[in-house]
Design brief:
Helices cover 72% and strands 4% of the residues. The protein has a three-stranded mixed beta sheet with strand order 2-1-3. Helix 3 packs parallel to helix 7. The longest helix is centred in the last third of the chain and has 35 residues. It is globular and about 60 Å long. The mean pLDDT is 90. Keywords: Cell membrane, G-protein coupled receptor, Membrane, Receptor, Transducer, Transmembrane, Transmembrane helix. It is a multi-pass membrane protein. It is found in: Cell membrane.
């Protein structure tokens, strides 16, 4: 087992096992996932276009919804095209750099989607519990700052996780038992102890989930409490 990058012959490509090895199913799965991806992309892009072209929808709630649609579209686009390519290609490999980029973008958009749900819950709390101050709290500048903060935190988290994962040496096995470069199957290929990295990933994921769930629950608890008082 390698203990340092210097002692390893670094892996330059990974092989994705994909969803199935049965050739007869690949054509069917290609059509199915192409349809799902097309519907997802069309729905989200249609939502974004409608929100930005209809003046009546130029409100904070719909602004955040358009950003969430963009995030969802981007998340789907990170891995679906490669999955569709692998259904048709004989080789299901992905370069080391492409794997790094794919994992980083998946982490980024996954984190952003969670944090945006928390932001949207806060928006509803402000609109319902503080209607007179709503446009002060949720001005256009405030909305842009919240989205910028969300993506800044997401980029930082993605860079942290991806940086730690790919600082590990990958010097032998290169077969990923998945259809994209997800964190657990990639970590299994590392030629070093992954306990520290796994702890960092667990803490990071737990903090993001805990923060998101807490904001959502507290926001809707206040909203429900406000409704009961009325």
């Amino acid at each position: 087992m390698c203990t340092t990058v210097e002692n390893c012959t670094q892996v330059t490509r990974f092989v994705l096992l994909g969803l199935t090895e049965q050739e007869g199913l690949k054509g069917t799965l290609f059509v199915l996932f192409l349809f799902i991806y097309s519907v997802t992309l069309t729905g989200n892009l249609g939502m974004i276009t409608l929100i930005h072209t209809d003046p009546q929808l130029h409100t904070p709630m719909y602004f955040f919804l358009s950003v969430l649609s963009f995030t969802d579209s981007s998340f789907s686009t990170v891995n679906t095209p490669k999955l569709l390519e692998n259904f048709l290609a004989s080789s299901q490999s992905i370069s080391f750099v492409a794997c790094v980029v794919q994992m980083a973008l998946m982490s980024l958009y996954g984190t952003a989607a969670c944090l945006l749900l928390a932001v949207m819950a806060y928006d509803r709390l402000t609109a319902i519990c503080h209607p007179l101050l709503y446009h002060t709290f949720m001005s256009q500048r405030s909305c842009i700052q919240l989205v910028a903060a969300t993506y800044t935190a997401s980029v930082a988290n993605s860079a942290l996780l991806t940086g730690y994962i790919f600082k590990l040496p990958y010097c032998g096995p290169n077969i990923i038992n998945h259809y994209f470069c997800d964190i657990p199957p990639v970590l299994r290929l590392a030629c070093a102890d992954t306990a520290e990295v796994e702890a960092i990933i667990f803490i990071s994921s737990a903090l993001i989930i805990l923060f998101t769930v807490t904001i959502i629950l507290v926001s809707y608890a206040y909203i429900l409490g406000s409704g009961e008082k009325e």
